[in-house]
Amino acid sequence: MFIMKIVGIVLLLAAAVCAKHEEYNGWTSYAVNPSTFEQLKVIGQLVDQYEVDVFSYPTVQREGLVLVRPEVNDSVVKALEENQISYSVHVSDIKAVLDQEDAVNARRKVEARGRSGGRSLPYDAYQEFPVIDDYLQDIARRYPNLVKLVTPANSFEGRPIRYLKISTTNFEDTRKPVIFLEGGIHAREWISPPTVTWAIHKLVENNTEPDLLRDFDWILLPVSNPDGYQFTHTNSRFWRKTRSTVGQNTARCPGVDGNRNYDFQWNTVGTSSNPCSDTYAGTAPFSEIETRVVRDIIHEYLPRMKLFLTMHSYGSMILYPWGHDGSLSSNAFALHTVGVAMAEDIDKVSLPNFPSYTVGNSVLVIGYAAAGAAEDYAHLAGVPLSYTYELPGLRSGLNGFNLDPIYIQQVAIETWAGIVAGARRIAQM
Ligand SMILES: *[C@@H]1O[C@H](CO)[C@@H](O)[C@H](O)[C@H]1NC(C)=O
Ligand SMILES: *[C@@H]1O[C@H](CO)[C@@H](O)[C@H](O)[C@H]1NC(C)=O
Ligand SMILES: [Zn+2]
């Protein structure tokens, strides 16, 4: 009886391992390369019409990567051909590639453990949620005069959503601008949280830019969507949304796209009212605790908050408002010049095989409008410099969906160069 039980458990475990990624059987990923803005807009229409899942937004003459479900495969291919949009099959057996990526990630994790040599967090293996959560608590304990840990709420499934406040003056010097970095709202974009934890490292553990501590107060939220983030590690690699089940958003199709859930032109464009969609806007603006936390931070520190960055991947882009119609805000000149300054400093320390950064209004760069995004909400609320970073990715070989972990530290370092440039521009304003 006892042995039977063990055998049963072992069989279950084995089944769970084999079943991983099976939901992506029959999916195909395509590299798409529009040569005109018209073609770019056609791709945007396909995204809405066929629920094409965009992994990396294309821009004019810069390739993007999209995932297509088997049911609409032929329709999407036909539309691409009819519009003479250049495309190629990127991966036809997605499960096999994800299995390979799992093996690489597991190996890197073991290697990183062997090498960690006193470093608190690995930057050559992906960081799972509990590891980041321990790190935030540990930093707050070790640097009590500089760092405060805040846990404003738990996620839908009960994980703590935490951020650090970093300040040499306990946030009491109200002349100091506040800078807010947020990561991990889109669960599958694994390169996002390490750029925020690296900023913590560079402010607290290895501060080589003392002016950034002296002149600014910082809010660092590495994982705003811990449920989704953990789910991509344990279940569905391409999960993007939260994991909530409320209202019409039933247990069959949980989750809301956090970057469509803000109260900015909510659910008007580039969103879906279907809970099963990856761009489901939710039952109402701020239906999600994960976005309410970000909203409340923004309002708590206005008007001192001068710079807000929300970290996404991938595409090497720095995007600014307005994202629902491509019109420009009255602060567009500053948004553009500071965006360019950040991109230039990133490109200076980037790798030759990474694309250089593109800077611009989000609709004008990716040809796709979407309502309810964090970057637009923060700007509307009064944050003068508000951006979405699309961090770098590589589509070749094993790096198709998941930047090889050997590049995590590089991305963290170069993104920090961008953050430093942005902060120093504020100091001059
Ligand atoms: C989707 O279309 C591509 C290109 O025509 C083809 O290679 C692939 O096998 C198709 N996949 C499915 C599931 O039909
Ligand atoms: C701190 O950062 C500098 C500059 O990147 C680097 O040279 C140095 O080795 C780092 N020190 C520690 C203790 O990590
Ligand atoms: Zn994203």
From TrEMBL:
Keyword terms: Carboxypeptidase, Disulfide bond, Hydrolase, Metal-binding, Metalloprotease, Protease, Signal, Zinc
InterPro entries: CARBOXYPEPT_ZN_1, M14A-like_propep, M14A_act_pep, Peptidase_M14
Transmembrane segments: none
Pfam families: Peptidase_M14, Propep_M14
Domain of life: Eukaryota
Location of the Peptidase M14 domain: 125-426
PANTHER family named among the record's database cross-references: FI02848P-RELATED, PROTEASE FAMILY M14 CARBOXYPEPTIDASE A,B
Family according to the record: Belongs to the peptidase M14 family.
Name of the protein: Peptidase M14 domain-containing protein
UniProt organism field: Plutella xylostella (Diamondback moth)
